[in-house]
Each structure stands twice: as structure tokens, then as C-alpha cells.
Design a protein that fits this description.
mainly beta; SH3 type barrels; three-stranded antiparallel β-sheet
Length: about 160
């Protein structure tokens, strides 16, 4: 029997966790020809979608695709996202969730399972602290040479590999 991908199950689990905790679930999606989203909101081939109960109508998360209706600029649009195009699902309030490698143009396929020692860990998301930890004078750690993160505002996605 062919192996079924765990990705759609993980998407549904993180969505349920977000809603149970009162968080707003967001999807980061890689857009291609199979994706049906408002193209005017796509940036660098990607779009972030609010998939909370209040922002969607008729949300259905299948093993192959996520589809629902949502309003953009007051106009109802039908949204269709193949599960393989989902890059991440996370809580907007704290950035916690899960990231995935998008598999563009591929149908959810039955892959031959890899030996356990060859399976790479799934990257996770973490929230970015609003201020750097204080450094002492004798701290010889790496210096990024950049400005400290801005306080307030929206959380950002950080991909950890």
C-alpha cells in the first residue's frame, strides 16, 4: 500500500491548535498555476492567508487541497491552495507553527518510504524576540552588526533548519 503524506494532517492539527488557543491561523503559500488566489496580493511568488473562522467561509482542508471563500477589498473570492504549495501554517500572534518545503507541480504522490536514518527533521517555526539579550563586555559571540529588532508590530516568520 502507498504511503500517505502527513502534511495535510499536520496542517489540520496546527489549525485546530490555533483555534483552540484563540490564535489566528495563517498560511504561507507558494503561488503557481495550480493555486487560485487574488494575484494582486501575491508578493515574490508568495501569499499569506488568514484562515481563521471569521476570515473564511466554507473552509475545507482536504488531503489534496485547502479551499474556502474570503473577502479581499470587500469582494468575495474563491481560494484554492494545493497542500503541496503550503510553506507554513502558524499562529499570527506568536509565530508558532510548522514550516514545510513546498513541492510545486507535484500531485500528492505515494512515495517509497525512506529508511528512518535518512528522514530529515521537519523545520519548525519560532517567534523572534522583540529585543536582543543583553551582552556583556567580555562576550565574544558573533556580532550580526545589524540593528536590534523593532519593538511592537507583527511577529515575523523565521525558518529554522
Amino acid at each position: 500500500m502507498s504511503e500517505i503524506s502527513t502534511k495535510p494532517y499536520m496542517l489540520r492539527a496546527i489549525y485546530e491548535w490555533c483555534t483552540d488557543c484563540g490564535y489566528t491561523p495563517y498560511l504561507a503559500v507558494k503561488v503557481d498555476a495550480a493555486t487560485q488566489v487574488p494575484m494582486e496580493y501575491v508578493r515574490k511568488g508568495e501569499i499569506v492567508l488568514n484562515i481563521s473562522f471569521g476570515a473564511t467561509s466554507g473552509l475545507k482542508m482536504d488531503n489534496d487541497a485547502i479551499h474556502f471563500h474570503a473577502r479581499f477589498g470587500g469582494v468575495s473570492r474563491e481560494i484554492y491552495v494545493p497542500v503541496n504549495n503550503v510553506m507554513a501554517i502558524y499562529a499570527n500572534e506568536n509565530g508558532q507553527g510548522m514550516a514545510f518545503e513546498p513541492l510545486l507541480g507535484q500531485a500528492p504522490a505515494a512515495k517509497t518510504p525512506a529508511p528512518v536514518e535518512e528522514i530529515a527533521p521537519v523545520p519548525t517555526l519560532s517567534s523572534v524576540p522583540s529585543a536582543p539579550a543583553p551582552r556583556s563586555e567580555d562576550d565574544n559571540g558573533p556580532d550580526d552588526g545589524g540593528e536590534p529588532p523593532k519593538k511592537g508590530g507583527r511577529p515575523t516568520l523565521t525558518r529554522i533548519k
